[in-house]
Amino acid sequence: MIKTQVMRTHSPSKVKSTYVTASSILLASAFILWPNVPSAISPSACISTESDQYSSLQITFPLDKYAMVMSSVPGFPIEITEENTTFPLTVTASSGKLLVMEGLTGNQVRSSGTSLEVKQPSTIYWSPLASPPVSEATITVTSQALYSNSAAGSASVHIVQDHDGFYKIN
């Protein structure tokens, strides 16, 4: 943990120091610069599609909005579930990057570019960090039947950046 000394006062009998961590400064800045941050933690946005008898795909966004100053997550979280777990899922993004948490404790982030195959249930992350900067993207999740290699279900969402710098489902 990085500590920054903020204030030191001297008196004849004691020395008093107050420390503030770098993360608390970032959090305070986020609430000052983006007063809508508390509203970003709201009920999940859920997009669902019913395809045929083999697939029921559901995409859930645990956050209503996402901004890069929200350091608790590496990107816009996307939870993907499907009733029939024998299907592989392919996730593609038109821009930005798809990220996966790995490691024993899930604290290592791996970039997968704009395409990713996942076994569900999974939480993946979409990040707008790219060159050139991203202001919108379309995320498509496709479920394919193993026996026929054809699409059994598909769902797409459009993410846009609003004038306050937040990314949200359009």
How would you characterize the overall build of this protein?
By secondary structure, the chain is mainly β. It has 2 domains: 3-33, no CATH class; 41-169. Helices cover 9% and strands 49% of the residues. The chain has 2 helices and 14 strands. It has a 6-stranded antiparallel β-sheet, with no helix packed on it. A 6-stranded antiparallel β-sheet has the order 5-14-13-12-7-10. Strands 1-2 form a two-stranded antiparallel sheet. A hairpin with a 5-residue loop joins strand 8 and strand 9 (108-111). The radius of gyration is 21 Å and the shape is globular. The chain starts with a strand and ends with a strand.
How is the main sheet built?
6 strands, antiparallel
Question: Whole-number average pLDDT?
Answer: 69
Question: Low-confidence parts, pLDDT < 50 over ≥5 residues?
Answer: 1-43, 48-52
Element string (H = helix, E = strand): EEHHEEEEEEEEEEEE
| Envelope shape | globular
Taken as a percent bin, the fraction of beta residues is over 45%
Q: How many strand units?
A: 14
Number of continuous helical runs:
2
What is the CA–CA distance across the termini? 37 Å
Q: What class, by secondary structure content?
A: mainly beta
User: What portion of residues is helical?
Assistant: under 10%
